[in-house]
Amino acid sequence: MNLPFIRQLFSLAALLTLILAVPAGAQEPGKSVLPTTCHASSEQSRTFEEMTAPAMWSCEAEGFRTDQPVGWLRFDAAYWQAEPTPRFFFSRIARFESIAFAAVDDDGTMRTATFAENEATTFAGGPVFRLPLPELRPDTAVLLVRIDRPHSVPLLAEARLAADPLSPHWSMTQMMVLAMVIGMLLLPLLFDLGFFAVLRERFVALHAVMVVAMICYVLFAGGLISLVVSLPVAVVAIAGPLAWAVGCGTSALFLAKFLEVDAQSKQMHILTKAVGIWTIIVPGFFALQLHATQTFDDWLYFYTFMPTIAVISAALVEAVLRGSRSARFVTVAWIPLILASIERLWRGLGVYVGPPELDLLLFVATGFEVTIISLAIADRFFAIRRERDEAVENAEELSRLSERDSLTGLMNRRAITARFPELIAKGFDTFALVDLDRFKEVNDVHGHQAGDAALVASAEALRVRGGRDSIPVRLGGEEFVVLLRGPDAINRVEALRRAIPLHVARKIPGLEKPLTASMGVVEMPRSATGGMTFEDFYARADTLLYDAKKAGRNRMNYERMKIFSEAPAPRSGRRNRAA
């Protein structure tokens, strides 16, 4: 069980080595990408002509805004004069309504092109899309880009121009990292399915949902889905953030179920579940990037994750302080993920602009988290199985104790009543009801301790002398039952009756009188026992016992029965054997 996890940890180390080997922003040889120069934002009514004024622009590498209906980008000719002339516009996949380009020449001539969201091309080169540019000529002074309804800061901050239609894709090494992360996520998913088949715990199902959400996030946010199928920008743009919201919300629900019962206070348990539902619903709604919510859904998507991060962090701290073993596993798994999520949140809010390769940290942290949590689930699986095995053993022991007389160790009435049909089927067709004669006098004269000792001695006599083909039972008080099978049952049960006073006398010296026993015995051919219950046998044996007591005690009354169709009554087949 542990070997696959060890292999996964080595894989993680290899992934980190690959990431460190590829500097942020590095491109493959022969592919030149030009950075964004300046940016601005405006109301819907602003035109290209109005945006030619230099005062309208900010050329800092931060401050990109999506809280206005239109985002603007400006690329000056100086940035591509020493490079092949750009022919394509690339940017991070996110929702937008339309993108318009204006190539402005030195003499003021303007060539424009406008594209709707569904005209953008996604391709297997990372989470990016591509649009063709209007012709850029030697005398073109500037390229203006108007993005209507931009829903993401990276859509503006990571926009690039290039001559090669495949230029801005992530390096092959980085795409391999994402593919390896997907492979790492699939194995824990298989473990979850296997664990759930054995251990029907809800936290296993929640972790499986979380893993599926993380797989979808890596596929869509990392752009790997484009290796399989070409999807519209809107689908890819929504699926990634939505999968992340579902995965994070499910993580909180998983935490509430996974931690031990005493690892959380009642208030924290409720808060953890509430923040899980919050994360699925609220950030999940803003992940849809509706054009009606464009001016605020980007920053609200990130801000609404803050309560989730705060509550989960507080829940882990509380659980660790309470000594939770499961919380220690989860803390190790989630610290890298929480830190990577905060970094991505800052970039998403435009606090700073970093290279898109930083997203690999989040993807690798996701693979690390799922691996460690799977290890934690395996640990919890074995712990729960041990607990359940112990519970089953305890239940079986309690069941055994509930079926045994606490004083003598013999089977009690509850047990014999339940097993009686089975014993009848196995041939125990002789029923002997035993009652100790004048037992009350032993208690009155010698005390209850002596009385208990007499009961124990009588039980030993019945158990030791009875052999394998007899089952002694204590019904209560001084009353016993012995079930017998095999030949010569009447003589054997009479020998048991005679053994009682001898065994008691040896065990309890000093009794004034011998402690004798009376019996009522019913013997029935197996062919006639069908349908008879313990109570049926008991009623007939009790009548015979009463007659034995009435005849002077210290004797056995027995009856061989052929059928069971009459109420107990004196019959010609009844015999009496006295001491």
Which structural traits does this protein have?
single chain; 579 residues; alpha+beta; Jelly Rolls; Rhopdopsin 7-helix transmembrane proteins; Alpha-Beta Plaits; 7-stranded mixed beta sheet; 16% strand; rod-shaped; disordered N terminus; 7TMR_DISM_rcpt_extracell_dom1; membrane; GGDEF_dom; transmembrane; signal
Name the overall outline: rod-shaped
Cα radius of gyration in angstroms:
43 Å
- With strands numbered from the N-terminus, the spatial order across the biggest sheet is 10-12-13-11-14-15-16
Strand percent estimate: 15-25%
- When the domains are counted, the total is 3
Number of strands: 16
- Stretches where pLDDT is under 50 for at least 5 consecutive residues are 1-33, 564-568
Q: What is the percent of helical residues? A: 40-55%
Nearest-integer average pLDDT: 82
